Structure formats: C-alpha cells, structure tokens
Amino acid sequence: MHVAIFTDNDFDKINGVTTTFTAALRHAPEGTRLRMYTSATLAVDAPDYLAVRSLGIPIPFYGEMRMYVPRLHTFLKRARADRIDLIHLTTPGPIGLAALFVAWRLRLPIVGSFHTDLAAYAVRLSGSARLGALMREYMRWPYGKCARILVPSEHTRQLLIDARTNPGKIDVWTRGVDTTLFSPSKRSMALRESWRVSDRRLALLYVGRVSREKGLESLPLIGDRLHALGIEHRFIIVGDGPLLPALRSRMPDAVFTGSLAREGVADAFASADLFVFPSTTDTAGNVVLEAQASGLPVIVSGTGGPRENMRAGGTGTVCHSENPDGWARAIATQLRDPALAQVRAAAREYAMTRTWARALEPLFRAYREVLEGVAPAPAVQPAVQGV
Fold first, then answer.
1. How far is CA 149 from the centre of its chain?
2. Which of 58, 81, 86, 309 is deepest in the core (most CB within 10 A)?
3. Measuring CA to CA, which residue among 82, 72, 15, 85 is closest to residue 48?
4. Residue 233 reports pLDDT greater than 60
5. Amino acid 68: pLDDT
6. String of b and e for 184-209 (b: at least 16 CB within 10 Å)?
C-alpha cells in the first residue's frame, strides 16, 4: 500500500502536524509505504518526503507565514511514479486542492484528517465572524470528497458534525507522545538557574506558536493577578510568532527562548513547574501530552481539544474561565495543591499510556478499510477526559 500524504507543513517546522506525521513515518506497518507531499521554498526529494519548489505568498492576516501555489502536474507525475494507491488530505488549503486534483486524475480514494480549525483562526485573527462562517462552509467541500475523515478529538468531531459533515465518515484519531524524548529525567538545574527560577519563584511554561489564536494576549494580566495572589513566578515562552514583540514589551520579566530544537523543548518541559496552555482554538494540543510525559502538571482551556489529552483533577486542571482572574486562580490552586508531587507522577503515568504505536492504529486501519471498500463502523462517542 502506497500512500501520498499531502500537507502544507514542510518538515523544517516543529508543530503538532509534523510531529504526528514524523511518528506515522516511523511506525508505518510492514507493507505500508508513506510519503509526504508538500510545497516549499527549497526542493527535497527523499524516499519518504517530497517537497516541490513552489511560489510562496503571504497568508492573509498572518503575513510572516507563507502558503505555496502547488505545481499540480509535478505532483501528478510524482504520484504516478510512486504508484500511489491512496491519497491522504491533511489541509483544505492549496496543497489540499493538489491532493484532490491528483486523486481525481488517478481515480484514487481519499482519506482526510482535520488538524487546524481554520474557521476559528479566521475569526480570532480577522475579528470577522462572517469570514469564519465562510471558511467553515468552504471546508465542507474538500473534506466532503473524503471517504473517511479523521479528527484528533471529540470536540473536533462535533465541530464537523455541527458544520453538516456526515458523521458516519468521521473517526477520532487521537495523538501519542514520545515518552523517551519527553521525560522528567531531562530536568536541568542549570537551565532553571539560567531562567532565574527556584522552588520559591516558579517557572510557568508555554510552548507553541506565539500568536493571537493561542490566547496568549491574556498572559500579562494573568501574571499581574498571580503576583497579587502571592505566587512568585516567571513565564517561560518557547516558540516564535507575530505576537512576540508585543509580549516582550508587556512581559519584561518573562523569558523568551524563541524556537528550540526538539531536545531543547524536552529540556524546557522537564525543567518547568507548570504548563499553561490557554488556547481555545487547538484541535488536539500535542504539547499537552509532551508536558505530561515530562512530569509537568497542565492547565488547559475548557474549550477545544487539549482537555481531552489530560485527566482533570488528576494530571492538571481544566480552566473553564475566559478571564485572567479565573486563570490566575486556577494556576494558584494547582501550584498550592499539597499533592502536587503526586500530580506530577500521575501526569507521567498517564502519558505513558499514550504511545504513538497505539495512537496511530486508527490511521492505518482507515487506510486499509478505505482501500478494501469497508464501510466505517458506527461511531461510538468516546469519554472525554477533561471536564
């Protein structure tokens, strides 16, 4: 079985999508050959990764990121040469349109996976609810061409159902975590000293894109409220993005590391005291699993997919408030929990159950069933961990 996975994320990026498909390439079962297809500034032709050099243009409302105009006939030619049996569409953007074109020309079935709620991003970045509604309506078209649609959380599944996607096509495909790379053993006192944190001045960590759709504009106010509650702390912000200059200005006491390699991210997770993830737009939140694998309690929003990747009250807290006071109280309560050491241990124990080998089973099963013409099983609503 030869599968072409069309993505708009080149593998120079470190994010949830590239982490997920790096794991898929590593764990592909015998007889299954996966190859990533993407467009990029530089061409790459590796056995499991094809980047076609293409013209890049700025993304609306997100000018420092680019989308590429796909070279349709180049992708078609390469898919023929690769003897592709199945197309995997991961985006409704231009690369997704290339996936549809190749599938149409070669008469191949399509499996889709939903990774980013672009409609929610459009609302948050543009301020226009109408634009968000238009984006959600548009997304029904490419995903409507898919024989099966894989989503990372029950929250995302419900989003698609509410957008009038056939629920019989939708399967939940959860995420896993590398518990060897992300481990409490990576804790570094030298790194903590460089951050100037201690048992009395705690390190509150965020890892991810530094942008408005992640809910980070509230961090300065949350910090003020924490000081008022007597919680001495320092925010550690790992990542890059358009909101970085504003946060640097408003949070002069925070540590901004910029983007780090995977090993550096693992060290940061293990060396912090609490992971704070205020995003309401994430469909999964791989970083929430990575934090717990590192023995780090997590605070996540009550909206979105990340709350399904932790155990509320066991490995951290789900904050249902949308204001800085509520977040500060949730953080303070978690940090003052006399059983915090047990929470750290429970976080690691929970993450150990979320292996990539197990998490990827629904993906490879969907490939097989679509190629064999097997109808999807009736959906069973999974229990949501975070409440």
1. 17
2. 309
3. 82
4. yes
5. 81
6. bebbeeebbeebebeeeebbbbbbbb
Q: Which of 61, 70, 117 is nearest to 98 (CA)?
A: 70
362, amino acid identity: P
Q: What is the mean pLDDT of residues 25-33?
A: 95
Residue-averaged pLDDT of the chain:
91
Q: Which fold has domain 184-352?
A: Rossmann fold (3.40.50)
Mean pLDDT value across residues 237-245: 94
Asked if CATH classification 3.30.1330.10 holds for the domain at 2-176+356-372, the reply, yes or no, is no
Bridge partner residues of 378 (DSSP): none
> CATH 3.40.50.2000 occupies which residues in the chain?
2-176+356-372, 184-352
252-275: b (≥16 Cβ within 10 Å) or e: eebbebeebeeeebbbbbbbbbbb
| CA pair distance 39, 41, nearest whole angstrom | 7
